[in-house]
Amino acid sequence: MNAVPSSIESVLVENRVFPPPPQAVQGARIGSMAAYQQLVDEARADPDAFWARLARENLAWTKPFSKTLDESKAPFFEWFADGELNASANCLDRHMGTPVEHKTAIVFESDDGKVTRLTYRELLTRVARFANALKAQGIQKGDRVVLYMPMGIEGVVAMQACARLGATHSVVFGGFSAKALQERIVDVGAVAVITANFQMRGGKELPLKAIVDEALAMGGCEAVKTVLVYERTASAWPRVEGRDKTFAEALQGVSDDCPPVPVGAEHPLFILYTSGSTGKPKGVQHATGGYLLWAKLTMDWTFDLRPEDVFWCTADIGWITGHSYVAYGPLAAGATQLVFEGVPTFPDAGRFWKMIQDHKVSIFYTAPTAIRSLIKAAEADGKVHPDRYDLTSLRLLGSVGEPINPEAWMWFHRHIGGERCPIVDTFWQTETGGHVITPLPGATPLVPGSCTLPLPGIDAAIVDETGNEMPNGAGGMLVIRRPWPSMIRTIWNDPERFKKSYFPPELGGSVYLAGDGAVRSADRGYFRITGRIDDVLNVSGHRMGTMEIESALVSKTDLVAEAAVVGRPDDMTGEAICAFVVLKRARPTGDEAKAIAKELRDWVAREIGPIAKPRDIRFGENLPKTRSGKIMRRLLRSIAKGEAITQDTSTLENPQILAQLGEAY
Ligand code: WT7
Q: Where on this chain does CoA bind (predicted)?
């Protein structure tokens, strides 16, 4: 492409545009901006007819729906509500008798490099058998089941098996602590937990089952009657008689046949916890029909999936990306996908490149944070540089979870994509269910660092506090003005918080507030996400609430009197967590401060998980407050960044503590 720059210096040039390469345009479902615009127009002219058409074309319904969208209970929108379907049947049974039946569904590579392959037929049998095992434990439609699993075939099978029975799964990322797991088990009211004895990451064996035991012992989990344990490794694990069963025990004698249970389209397929502005994580509830439609549709639209593709999304099933683009989307679309258990740096930082080469991956979908750390590793050690691997199987790259800086975009484009592969910078959220603003590989001219334009039917806009649309070039809050099928349905157990968080009255009560700031480019109207506008941080693509970390810190009651947490920009992780702490004893310095900082980090890891550990901890005798006692967070953000204080500090009650907070441990 003549627009492809030939030197890295051009990184500094703004507004470079990369038109779709011919191989991405040829045969594309959406092969031009005109074709994109046609869909946008169709959706705008008659949204109900548009979504109804797509829902009928893309999903198999056991009972057809008669009404597309019910807005009568807005913002509790309902989609395809009187229709019935089963998500697992749509991902598996549906392919039987088609060429997909004997196609590879999953290529699994374990941490230590062992490869397992399963066809769609084999996967269906695995899911049916596991669903029968769940059924034998009394698990049925409407029950909630928590998964605390390693990445692997078993996790996907367990999710699909829950869906097959109409049981609602809630996957908790295997890096969360016992406390975080217990909170989620209690809030969701789980009747069973599915876990593994251990997980393997980077050659290390890490406990899962022991953490489940610890969580269940914390109380409030009395509804949990069953714990199913996948024996991932040969190591021994503690068994609670009468409650715990191994997968092998649970599967003994079960039938290969398990008819999928039809559920209403609005039936909750899953609840996934994510961080918000308060200390308590939100249980984001997704509905079966609309969610599955979106997972399937975006495989076709955003990835323009072709039958011969080998798709690889590196996300863990503990996050929404692993739900939509590992557990559901690729299967609903009949793709062959690679599933990886391990970490990108084991046995060395060439692991991803070697896997792309070995498995001839054609679509590679990962997070900017992984790209940035692999750039660093490649620059430090030529042996793991991607140029040493054969990556010619790739035809499309994707980025997700945080803004991708143009430098990382260019490196990804050049060294991974061979200047040949479009990069889809997909903006979305746990709440949106799937991509909402993203380039289309066969149509959209790309601009590094921009997620470009909304998908057809997504009425995204940038507005001010009162809901007025901002002109291009002026920043504001990102909203979606019309409902879409895969939108969050409610916050489990907290419909009031759902309304308050996402549909504020100032915007009319039915406009979705994403929680991100954004700006549209003056020339093309392309969206660029500028970051969260609420108290949510994005650290290595992981979403974390500042209040959540503050609550964890102050729960160390023997030590901490007060804590405030802010984010600061970080080249590698996007944002870094900075905690300002007032102790119940004299302000520590030197070695004592270092030791206490370590104690606090370990505490946060126990309360939430290692991903929530503050990078910097600063101790003060107090926090900077206004006379009315409000913590001056803007000031804290400046201090965290190491900036000179330019803010007006005249209202500051206690200006002398600013000097104390300059030191980070
Ligand atoms: C937040 C949502 C998207 C699924 C994984 C994360 C940020 C996400 C992008 C992007 C800039 C992005 C936003 C969003 N984000 N994708 N392409 N460009 N920012 O889901 O944990 O719910 O986090 O991630 O801030 O609000 P999540």
A: 201-204, 321, 540
- Which residue in 480, 435, 439, 441 sits closest to 459, CA to CA? 480
Contact 439 CB / ligand 1 (< 6 Å): no
DSSP string across 39-69:
HHHHHHH-HHHHHHHHHHHH---SB--S-SE
Handedness of CA 367, 371, 372, 376 (dihedral sign): positive
DSSP helix/strand/coil, 492? coil
Of all protein residues, the one whose alpha carbon is nearest to atom 8 of ligand 1 is 401
d(CA 213, CA 205): 17
Q: pTM of the predicted model, to two decimals?
A: 0.95
Return all residues near 79 (Cβ < 8 A) that are at least 6 apart.
51, 55, 68, 69, 70, 265, 266, 287, 289, 290, 483, 485
Q: What is the pLDDT of residues 246-267, one digit of tens each?
A: 999 999 999 999 999 999 999 9
3-class SS of residue 310: strand
Region 540-660: CATH code: 3.30.300.30
Give the CATH fold of the 22-491 domain: Rossmann fold (3.40.50)
| The one-letter amino acid at 576 | A
**φ/ψ bin of 199: left (φ > 0), alpha (ψ from -120 to 50), beta (otherwise):** beta
What's phi and psi for 353, nearest 5 deg? Answer: -65, -40
> How far, in Å, CA of 467 to CA of 39, rounded?
26
Q: Which helix (H) or strand (E) holds 375?
A: helix 368-380
What confidence score (pLDDT) does residue 650 get? 80
Q: How far apart are CA 636 and CA 650, in angstroms?
A: 15
CATH topology identical between 22-491 and 540-660: no
- The structural domains of the chain, with segments of one domain joined by +, span 22-491, 540-660
Quick one: DSSP state of residue 631? Answer: B
Tens-digit pLDDT profile for residues 356-393: 999 999 999 999 999 999 999 999 999 999 999 999 99
515: Cβ below 6 Å to ligand 1? yes
- With a 6 A CB cut-off, is 451 part of the ligand 1 pocket? yes
- pLDDT band, residue 533 (cuts 50/70/90): very high
Task: Say how many Å lie between the CA of residue 383 and the centre of ligand 1.
Answer: 32
Q: Is 411 labelled as part of a ligand binding site? A: no
- Report which of 372, 318, 322, 311 is spatially closest to residue 345, judged by C-alpha positions: 372
pLDDT, position 295 = 98
> What share of the chain in percent tops pLDDT 90?
92
Residues linked to residue 425 through DSSP beta bridges, in sequence order: 399
* Rounded distance between C-alpha atoms, residue 166 and residue 143, angstroms: 8
Nearest in space to 485 (alpha carbons), one of 440, 528, 435: 435
Instruction: Report how far ligand 1's centroid is from the alpha carbon of 618 (Å).
Output: 28
351 is in an annotated binding site: no
Which residue has 């592969």 as its token pair?
421
